[in-house]
Amino acid sequence: MAIDPLLARITIDPATCHGKPCVRGLRYPVQDLLDLLAAGMTTQEILDDYPDLEADDVRACLAWAARLARVKGVHVFAA
């Protein structure tokens, strides 16, 4: 099965950001970029703030989140 080119931009390395999924081996965790998008930043604003990122990196984070959202079920645990 071929890896989606966008998802190939997401790397996991125990030596980088404690093994969190990051963009292209850089120290930009996917979670942080998704948080910026959720807070209302546009892709262009993120790229302006982090010039070593590319538009496809932001799209890769969204593709990663979409892949994770494809769950077969949700289990609710009592708090």
Structural commentary:
This protein has 79 residues and is mainly alpha-helical. It has one domain: Orthogonal Bundle (Arc Repressor Mutant, subunit A), CATH 1.10.10.10. The protein is 39% helix and 5% strand. It has a two-stranded antiparallel ribbon with strand order 1-2. The model has no long low-confidence stretch (mean pLDDT 92).
Count of beta strands: 2
The ordered string of helix (H) and strand (E) elements is EEHHH
Provide the helix percentage.
Answer: 25-40%
Q: Give the strand line-up of the largest sheet.
A: 1-2
Number of domains: 1
Indicate the multimeric state: single chain
| Beginning-to-end CA distance, first to last residue | 39 Å
List the helices and strands and how they pair.
Elements: E1 10-11, E2 22-23, H1 30-38, H2 43-49, H3 55-69
Helix pairs in contact: 1-3
Kindly list the characteristics that best describe this protein.
two-stranded antiparallel ribbon, 79 residues, 3 helices, 2 strands, Arc Repressor Mutant, subunit A, globular, single chain, mainly alpha
